[in-house]
Write a structure and sequence with these properties.
alpha/beta; 5 helices
Length: 125
């Protein structure tokens, strides 16, 4: 059984906006014999540095890390700072915010970055 964590985007908590945009993920994984899904939640008022630290403490318990939007940003930050063992973990980011100057100076240092396709609309200058 592979453990999956879904790191949600900002302001997508079902308790704050009564709209679970991640229901398809939950349905898919709930019907799977291969995967278990844990949902990483955080309130919008929580300091993002605190959210990051909480995520850093638990992320390596999972085989697959899925980050959406702000969750993808947090996941990318964990990758860049070496807090995810990429030799044993799979990472999926969905619609991450990408800042152009960060892309040029930091992301460009990642091995095989040339194989990554970033649509222009994702780059914030």
């Amino acid at each position: 059984m592979k453990n999956v964590i879904l790191v949600r985007g900002f302001n997508t908590s079902t308790t704050e906006n009564n709209n679970d945009i991640y229901q398809p993920f939950k349905l898919f994984f709930s019907n799977s014999d291969e995967y278990t899904l844990e949902y990483f939640d955080y309130p919008t008022y929580e300091n993002l540095d605190d959210v990051y630290e909480r995520l850093k403490q638990i992320v390596n318990r999972f085989d697959i890390i899925i980050g959406h939007s702000m969750g993808a940003y947090l996941t990318n930050k964990l990758l860049l700072e070496g807090n995810i063992d990429t030799t044993t973990k799979k990472v999926i980011t969905i619609n991450p915010p990408v800042f152009y100057n960060v892309f040029q100076t930091t992301l460009a240092k990642i091995p095989n970055i040339g194989n990554l396709y970033l649509p222009v609309f994702l780059i914030i200058s």
